[in-house]
């Protein structure tokens, strides 16, 4: 009994010693020092949220502006480092933070208790009300949340507004989308009856679109959940403290109201005056460039890996065949979007220097390889076994038989199917926009947020994709014709 008491006493003493040690360790984290050592503060944002963060075209380049961006600039300046902005979907921001793809997140984000479980927040730097954006023609119908009974309400996924609609408008159907631009398009096309968003953002859309109107639906909001704050990795106390110093300086000088919001309004006004699609042709050109880079590189590596997987699946080596079958079935059985996110956020958490473009190429290449492998396998199996037997009887090795007899004939048979896979790849590469790769889809979203026009950029993007795929189909058709006459 005595020895048991002694052991309990020792355990209690050790725990008492470890608790303060843990606190010291947390307070003496090296996050701030890491940022200073690399000389760059990487900040994640979702640049479709005026006046907090959005894009403008300056000297032919895309620049990120808004009151959040100004705060991030001020924070980086106070740290003595350069600011790097990473633009991605709002619901991917905290994942990027937890996997250390970014050092901080500033995107009009509310420090809700649920989010505080996984990340740390700075002090509130701006507080606004929660509004509804509606079509002006419906102004007489909707006054508060009770007016929307049995209606469809749109909200950005992962946002405070989404939770408010879900909890306080239970008789309504909620439609969640990642981008506010898409929600505004849904509103204008009658897919939703209203869109819940933060006050300043709702007013920004209404001021730049005469067919829209804002109302205060009088949500019952807990004051502890309102307001915008910067988010940091869990345990990054040094960065949080540094951010709080910057926020205190900004609030003392009232920079948000005196400088940042007026500057954002100026940018928004200029965007409204110069919102012709022709003014943004460089956006679409850059998108085409990235889309073609991703497609060409992915086709090359996907084809090489596809041949290897097809040969392994057809081989007599049980281990190699099992690996090939497992890979092909797994990749074909999971969505490309999930694979892209896994490569960027999953593998990227281990290899933190992995760029979004490279992650996108890797994911698309690995996905394409599985489909190419099946196309090649079916092509090889379509060749009569007598061809192989004849080649082997002439003294040709298995390698030479495949190289000079089987593959050339199989290629003729599978060329149309391979062509379809390459064309599909151009369209499927648009998935990489979710991790911030500047492909055509990503650039389209930038144009939408910069011009406050939703449908026209989509139409232009459709035409561009059609021109690329139609052109490629004609090129592939030409080579297919030559193969038939060879």
Automatic annotation (TrEMBL):
One of its GO terms (biological process) is amino acid transport. It is a multi-pass membrane protein. It is found in: Cell membrane. Keywords: Amino-acid transport, Cell membrane, Membrane, Transmembrane, Transmembrane helix, Transport. GO terms for molecular function: transmembrane transporter activity. The chain crosses the membrane at residues 290-312, 353-373, 454-479. SUPFAM superfamilies: MetI-like (SSF161098), Periplasmic binding protein-like II (SSF53850). GO terms for cellular component: ATP-binding cassette (ABC) transporter complex. Residues 288-468 form the ABC transmembrane type-1 domain. Pfam families: BPD_transp_1, SBP_bac_3. InterPro entries: AA_ABC_transptr_permease_3TM, ArtM/GltK/GlnP/TcyL/YhdX-like, MetI-like, MetI-like_sf, Solute-binding_3/MltF_N. SMART domains: PBPb (SM00062). Belongs to the binding-protein-dependent transport system permease family. HisMQ subfamily. NCBIfam families: HEQRo_perm_3TM. This is Amino acid ABC transporter.
